[in-house]
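Students often ask what a holo structure prediction actually looks like on paper. The answer is less mysterious than it sounds. You provide the chain, you provide the ligand, and the output is a string of discrete structure tokens encoding the 3D arrangement of the protein together with GDP-alpha-D-glucose.
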Amino acid sequence: MLTKRDLRKVIRKVIGNRLLVLASNREPYIHIYKEGKIDYIRPVGGAVTALDPVMRACGGIWVASGSGPADKKVVNKKGEVGVPPENPKYTLKRIWLSKEEENGYYFGFSNKAIWPLCHVTYTRPVFEESDWRHYKKVNEKFADAIIKKIGRKKAFVWIQDYHLALLAKYLKEKNPNIKTAHFWHIPWPNPEAFRICPKKKEILEGLLANDLLGFHILYFCRNFLETVNLELEARVDNERTSVIYRGHETLIRGFPISVDFEELSKLSDSKKVAKEVSKIKEEFALTKIEFIIMGLDRIDYTKGILEKIKAVDRFFEKYPEYKERVVFIQKGALSRMHIETYKDLNDQINDQVEDVNWKHSTEGWAPVIFARRHFSREEISAFYKIADICLISPLHDGMNLVAKEYIAARNDLSGVVVLSQFTGAARELKSVIQVNPYDPDSFADKIKKAIEMGAEEKQKKMERLRKVVLENNIYKWAIKFISELQKI
Ligand code: GDG
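The corresponding structure tokens follow.
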């Protein structure tokens, strides 16, 4: 198993005296006001969850947009603050966006255009010229802030996700000594799906300004290479798996992202989490329930939440003997609520939960609990600990970290993972029960199968899954990524 220490060694060897700068839209710590005092929360989202342990191990500067109500209060004149707040290990540099910029760049081009374009869930992308203008402007703003920080020094900039597709190009125009690598956290679609994008050439050119471009799985790499072949006059080198465009080479690689297994496993056995277990059981009246099924997602149409509730409905229709014995508790954090599709989805979920509960509930029991409030890491760990089954049903997902977090938390070797075949995680986690979320009948049967699985089989499967996640932890992911830079 590779550790923080191994990662530090690799960073020293590969990055040397270059400055390490990570850039993402979302910040890893959000400062808020709580009872008149400044406090902080960790945002909901996979990219940030995965990268914070890496930055804690390596140090450096993380540039992101400031989004918390108390964010401006805690930074110095340069917009910087040490994090984690209680024991700083790296610097968070915040960028301030205006409402118009946030609207056009974040809600607009990033989430109304690129997000649905890359997830094949039959949700139509919306392309607006004004959103694109803001998208370019904000990418340039990130580039200016980074350049101001590093000047003409040598640096390595590690760019995250679909919000910053043009950043490498802007950075290199300003300082050609900078090395950049980009990790794309969401799927890359097939060329047929991508070709409708009016800004496809600019996006591809932006990404090909990088020295290294990473996706979760080889399937997304292949889709990207095919897209480049179709859309640009570039040379795809199949031997090196790279693209040469206008004399510059970009290596294209698959790096399945992961979690800090050890930390999550330790947290699960902590006293704090034990306390949360009792509180949660009390709060949601779970003490007498025989089988607890859990779900944890941002409220997003790609996550298949409606499909999941429908499958639970079908399960109780087909197998009424499980009424009063099984509860499905779904935790859903609201996200991107300024976008109509997300508002509508939230309303649809409310209606569906209402209908299913009305249909199946008996005195003192309802099949579905939908919890919307923000949960702390300890509370989430407690959910993982009490849930007999973790139900993860995205219609399309880059990786899905919830699956890996649940596995890392199950030190008791119990618990079953039911996982959509359309997640990146399904390629690695062979011992899960796979489902097609578009097929409610077989989905319902898989829930039954998970409930009825014998203790010995559960243990064997969980042992195998834990081995995979332990060996392929977040440090291994980061080490593989950074080591690849040596080939440039
Ligand atoms: C993107 C890709 C890829 C959830 N609710 C709360 C909370 N969470 C945390 C979970 C988990 C994370 O959010 C969600 O991670 P996912 O991987 O499921 O999903 P995305 O946010 O869509 O992430 C995805 C990922 O990037 C990484 O590359 O896996 O495919 O879509 O860590 O625990 N955390 C807290 N409170 C909550 O209420 N603190």
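Residues 258 and 474 are 5 Å apart (CA to CA).
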